[in-house]
């Protein structure tokens, strides 16, 4: 940290330049966005820097702290059973998705000077629990749920799939006879429009910009135009946090919209994993087993078909995949179909599968599919050995 290398000043000047109507050179926005993604934010008050106000409660100082390699990674833990990395967060909510009255929506494991972090994340086996909670016990109705930081490749393509296409697939689902009932998660986009949620494990965010704003609020404690509260996730019950200095400049947000848009441009530019040669026979097994009902081989994108193996819809996968904490309007057993594109990298990295990494292998992940996916799981289990092998080899090559 520290140091005032000349490039930092050059970067600071560039960051202050407004995004022109046509957009800067697209490439430049992406380069700046990448630098901002890696930038470690600082608490307020601090010098003359335009953008600060980290915290008071936060999980990490930069996006890259949790999304370092841009791909899903294993969760580091120490011998005492404490999670030592940032790439898994613990969410809080009651059965209806309302935040805990004291701890808010997420356990923040770090804080600025003078404010106490909320607690520590403990692990036993694959079960993640809060430990050393500093503000008293959770409310009686509060549940906890762990979420892994996902891989970030290919999100620009997913953003380009029109809402109407997703609505059409959901309508088609209503006529299926195999129990699959995907639904669009309609959310407000911050500008009063109803949009199809598609990012995050629960399809909470309709666009990359909205996802960036949520990350600033929840993970970093920094406000933006769409999420103007400078206190981030600290609740009125956390008085030291509410009283701490915040970087709320002249009543404006701590993070300008230019920064949000540049990071979103960078995210949209991260390429998806290349994927294997299409294997028609494996794809046929994937179809007949019913996996493709949710993990759609292709969605219509702006620049052509998006071959990510998702429908971006919410599905109820049953009590075996009950995530505990949830969000308003979404059951704790409902999840957005994750793209299977990039699965080979996740497996090579040794990162777990499913929302909290509870499955170590593809076979384990399939076995945990219940609810709407029960009939597909059963069909997979009773496939002839050679077809099962073909399908698994194909999935592991994605
Ligand atoms: C403390 C760790 C942490 C930090 C810091 C963090 N993220 Fe994340 N990120 C996560 C987790 C966990 C999720 C899954 C959240 C969910 O499903 O609701 C996520 C989800 C995302 C997604 C959605 C991916 C998808 O496939 O749907 C994007 C995009 C993203 N983060 C970008 C960012 C950016 C940009 C920043 C910085 C402004 C950031 N994140 C900061 C942990 C983090
Ligand atoms: C009803 C919809 C549905 C069907 C059918 C379905 N899946 Fe899934 N799949 C999901 C959802 C939703 C998740 C995420 C669940 C979670 O994270 O808890 C998921 C997760 C996965 C994962 C883990 C992905 C990751 O990134 O961690 C794999 C692998 C997978 N499914 C493979 C399959 C295979 C193979 C089949 C067919 C045998 C199948 N799925 C059938 C909806 C479905």
TrEMBL record:
GO molecular function: cytochrome-c peroxidase activity; electron transfer activity; heme binding; metal ion binding
Domain called Cytochrome c: residue spans: 28-271, 277-398
A Pfam family of this chain: DHOR
Keywords: Heme, Iron, Metal-binding
Highest taxon above the source species: Bacteria
Gene3D superfamilies: Cytochrome c-like domain (1.10.760.10)
Protein name per the record: Cytochrome c domain-containing protein
